[in-house]
Every structure is written in structure tokens, then in C-alpha cells.
Amino acid sequence: LRGSKSFTAALPGETERNGHGLGYKSVSVGHLEAPPLSPSRLSLGRASSTATSTAAPEQGRPRDYLVLAIFSCFCPVWPINIVGLVFSIMSRNSGQQGDTDGARRLGRMARLLSIVSIVLGTIIIVLYISLSVRGNPSF
């Protein structure tokens, strides 16, 4: 039988309670933990946990509806469509930073504001044209 290369050692700071009131952490020889080199190393370690691997598979990058928001800027409801454009850009930035929940939330808001802007803009244009035609009988 080969001997195990792991042992139990009391490490200050990062210990687990083993049920006996003493803090011990099981580590392997040659794999003693060192402080993470950067914050990104810490987040990479969390991404490989079993809790995240059992979740639903990643559905890709969330939509930011930038094209729809740009198209809505041609409608005459400028405060709403500019805010929709800002939400769309914020959604794209959140998606690039890895915040998928925030990117989805901001993307939905950008889509809502863009659709409201397009609908209200279409109503305004139709009313303007119908009132212009009604006001000028020779047209």
C-alpha cells in the first residue's frame, strides 16, 4: 500500500471547523494554499465549483438591443429613446464585464423603452400627418 500524500494541518486564517472545536484544513503536500495573485484568480476559482457546473448551461451573451435602440432614436420621442439607448449601452458593458443578470435586466429595459418610443413616435407621426391633411383641404 502506498502512503497518502495528504495531511491535516492547522492553518491560521483559512480553517474549517471539524466538529471538535479545532480548526483544521486538509491539504496535499506541495499544494499549500498561497494568497491569490489577483482578484480575477479568485473569481476564476469560483466559476469551477460544482454549484455553478450543475446549473443550466450558459445561453450565450445576453441581448442588448442596441440596433433597436438606435432605430428608436429616429422617432420624435427623444427623452424616452435616449434613455433606452443609454440602457442598451449599459447592458452591453455589463455583458462584457460578465454580469449576465444585470445585462439581461438592462437589456429588457432598453427593449421596453425602445418599443415604447417607436410606438409613441409612430402615433405622433400619424397624428401629425392626419392633422396636416385635414387642415389643408387641397392636399
Automatic annotation (TrEMBL):
<feature type="transmembrane region" description="Helical">
    <location>
        <begin position="65"/>
        <end position="89"/>
    </location>
</feature>
<dbReference type="Pfam" id="PF04505">
    <property type="entry name" value="CD225"/>
</dbReference>
<dbReference type="InterPro" id="IPR051423">
    <property type="entry name" value="CD225/Dispanin"/>
</dbReference>
<protein>
    <submittedName>
        <fullName>TUSC5 protein</fullName>
    </submittedName>
</protein>
<comment type="similarity">
    <text>Belongs to the CD225/Dispanin family.</text>
</comment>
<feature type="compositionally biased region" description="Low complexity">
    <location>
        <begin position="47"/>
        <end position="56"/>
    </location>
</feature>
<dbReference type="InterPro" id="IPR007593">
    <property type="entry name" value="CD225/Dispanin_fam"/>
</dbReference>
<keyword id="KW-0472">Membrane</keyword>
<dbReference type="GO" id="GO:0016020">
    <property type="term" value="C:membrane"/>
</dbReference>
<feature type="transmembrane region" description="Helical">
    <location>
        <begin position="110"/>
        <end position="131"/>
    </location>
</feature>
<keyword id="KW-0812">Transmembrane</keyword>
<keyword id="KW-1133">Transmembrane helix</keyword>
<feature type="region of interest" description="Disordered">
    <location>
        <begin position="1"/>
        <end position="21"/>
    </location>
</feature>
<feature type="region of interest" description="Disordered">
    <location>
        <begin position="38"/>
        <end position="57"/>
    </location>
</feature>
